[in-house]
Amino acid sequence: MIQLPEDFITKMKRLMGEEYEELEASYNEGKVQGLRINTLKIDKDDFLKISPFHLESVSWCIEGFYYQEGDRPGKHPFHEAGLYYIQEPSAMAAGALLDPQPGERVLDLCAAPGGKSTHIAAMLQGEGLLVSNEIHPARAKILSQNVERMGIRNCIVTNEEPPRLKQKFLSYFDKILVDAPCSGEGMFRKDPEACQEWSLENVALCAVRQLEILNCAAAMLKPQGKLVYSTCTFSPEENERVLEQFLCEHKEFSLIEASIFEGFKPGRVEWTTHRTRTLQKALRLWPHRLRGEGHFLAILKKEDGDLPKKVKTKLKPLDKNSMKDYFDFGKNYLKEVPQGDFIQFGENLYCLPEIEVSLEQLRVLRPGWHLGTLKKSRFEPSHALALSLKSFEAQNVISFSAVSEEILSYLKGETIETSGIDGWNLICVEGYSIGWGKLVQSVLKNHYPKGLRW
Ligand SMILES: C[S@@+](CC[C@H](N)C(=O)[O-])C[C@H]1O[C@@H](n2cnc3c(N)ncnc32)[C@H](O)[C@@H]1O
């Protein structure tokens, strides 16, 4: 039995009345676990044919599934190949509500570790732009690794404070997700530390910060743009009341109705300061009403505002010899050489998504699709390039079965004896890319990144 904070119990009993007993009982049940199929890498039906897990659909997310306790999907080669992301089922509702369309510009302002960003990227299907931002440097690194693992090409990962991003991206995005840092009451079952860190003071602090973040997001949204606000907490101060205050300060915004699935409950008007009726359009996902740990979500629309400014960005010309090495690699080992706006960060070569904003002065971890490193007189392809390729896009492919000794050796970083064509080979598991290897006379030199090895 989880030891819930006393102040939390008193407060929730007062707010919920008899319903509190149902909430409390839910803390005695096991946590709910889910995974979301990454449709950038594999079709849902194709995954279901090869999945070794016991899966059951999550009703509000087409690609979302519950898995069972013994499944351990985090320890499977398919995980390293980015075929899915392990995500708490109620968190999957945010992407579904934001509903990004291919070609749109989307910002995920509080993005690490990347559950919702990788969902958004899958929905964009490689078209348009995703800016995934995380304020904490260490968490931003994990976000960037997850963007890489999921094979995302059109994502820029930044490590910024929202006010600094605001200066660059005024009225810029079609859609924004603010999955705000919160007191984490929906994490109590999953993470006992969330219980220990909880306090009434922290709830109040979170509410102030959430409003500040929302204010920045509001300025970055285009007129007619859509903003989804979400938290994984239940406190009215961080949910209905933050939005009530925001709507009061931003007359250009209104709440819009969201699709309702079984178990989704409306926002609680009686918990707002001024009985603001429109807040019933928000959604509450309670752990005692559906199979999920719990979330609060709302969709806001910006009715009017300034139009975005167009800025022409000048990219530095790249060294011709280095680029020749890149194009030689592409001709020899890829069916089609990736083209676009190239930029170089140190030795690293990236293909920049269409952005029309200069990234100068921003802390950028990943300025787009990482293609590889430009070494002295040779090009070395990146792990990100491997993971973003379909097997038919590479000239030489070696695919191992998911249950083979070879795939385990590969993930451990070992050298493998195997037949194939000498040179760079795209290594796959069951036909899905997982990394690079270089074959020389039937010996495969392992290029699986050292930091990821099992
Ligand atoms: C709920 S988590 C995000 C989870 C993420 N959206 C996902 O689905 O994986 C909130 C994030 O906001 C970040 N954060 C904390 N303070 C912030 C601030 N002042 N501005 C923006 N983000 C902040 C936290 O570091 C944390 O990673």
Give me some keywords for this one.
Archaeosine Trna-guanine Transglycosylase, Chain: A, domain 4, 5-stranded mixed sheet, binds S-adenosylmethionine, globular, alpha+beta, 454 residues, Rossmann fold, 14 helices
Give me a quick take on this structure.
The chain is of the alpha+beta class. The chain has helices spanning 6-16, 19-26, 44-50, 77-80, 92-98, 115-124, 137-149, 162-168, 192-197, 200-220, 240-249, 320-333, 383-388, 405-412; strands at residues 34-37, 56-58, 61-66, 84-86, 105-108, 129-133, 155-158, 173-179, 221-231, 253-256, 264-266, 283-285, 295-302, 341-345, 348-352, 364-366, 369-375, 378-381, 397-400, 416-417, 423-429, 432-440, 443-446.
Description:
The protein is an alpha+beta fold. Among the domains are: about 90-300, Rossmann fold (3-Layer(aba) Sandwich); about 390-454, Roll (Archaeosine Trna-guanine Transglycosylase, Chain: A, domain 4). Helix content is about 30%, strand content about 25%. The protein has 14 helices and 23 strands. The strands form four sheets. Strands 5, 6, 7, 8, 9, 10, 11, 12, 13 and 16 form a ten-stranded mixed β-sheet that branches. A five-stranded mixed β-sheet has the order 19-21-22-23-20. Strands 2-3-1-4 form a four-stranded antiparallel β-sheet. β14 and β15 (about 350) form a beta hairpin. α5 runs parallel beside α6 and α8 (about 160-170) packs parallel to α10 (about 200-220). The longest helix is centred in the middle third of the chain and has 21 residues, at about 200-220. S-adenosylmethionine binds near residues 110, 112, 135 and 139.
